[in-house]
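Notes from hallway chat w/ T.B., transcribed later so I don't forget. T.B. wanted the structure written out for a chain they're using in a teaching module, and asked if we could keep both sequence and structure tokens in one place. Agreed to drop them here.
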Amino acid sequence: MIVETLKVFVTVAEQSNFSRAAELLNLSQPGVSLHIRNLENEHGAKLMHRSPKHVKLTEAGEILYSRAKQILSLYEEAKHEIHLLTEKVSGSIHIGASFTIGEYILPRVLAEYANQFPEVEISVTIANTEEITQALKANKLDLALVEGNVSSHGMLITPYMKDEMILIASSDHPLAANRAVKTERLQDQIWILRESGSGTRSFCDQFIQAAGLTMKRSYVFNSSQGVKEAVYAGLGITILSRWIVRKELELGEISQIPVTPKLLERNFWIIRNHDHSSTMAVNVFVQKLLQRKT
């Protein structure tokens, strides 16, 4: 099988020695040499410069080594995915998510997962980033998806996706008529904010502080839906994830205010507790998340 031959080739290249490669692969040295000779015959090119103590790749060998590593990596991924298909995934999984992810991204992923693995019992807790992180640390959750800054202490943190943050206002707000607004134009505005502990609130606070803005007044809501409705009603301006207001922007119910300089993106994270044992159901769900980043 070509995969076995490529494994032999890569091992020889990395060990720079036929004898050491043979030991690692539990093959005879003539067997290793035969694999390499067959590869060279197949490609019609010398792949290795050999000496009694050292092996060095030729230019052709360097090209094959780079591609062989990619092929072997893809092959291992395929083996793992096929294994998952043949293994029965069951049990339960308790997922935590901050509001933006839990209300606007997670349901689609869960629908696909539940359809493929109907025997897994799924429960979801949605709260702000700080509350979800604390629940995970207390082993009340199997894994969580959150936004914003997360302490890595005791946590296994995996990047999930980037999230575009935008400034929004009601369609009849004075700022909505501008094609671009410099940050100084945002002085003494009325702001609609999430509660402390929210990843969205943390992003807003950092932006306001970095821009040196003062607020004429602020209103605080403990959900993104509440913030969005307050903006739609003309109560003030805010910064939210584009995920939250996609439909309202398309319908013209809310306006995006382009800011100069442009607002930065933030990260979404998959977090797990180092001390919490992981099940097949959890591992497969994480794999599904990483495969579906839209």
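Follow-up for T.B.: Residues 59-86 form the longest helix (28 residues). Might be a good example for the class.
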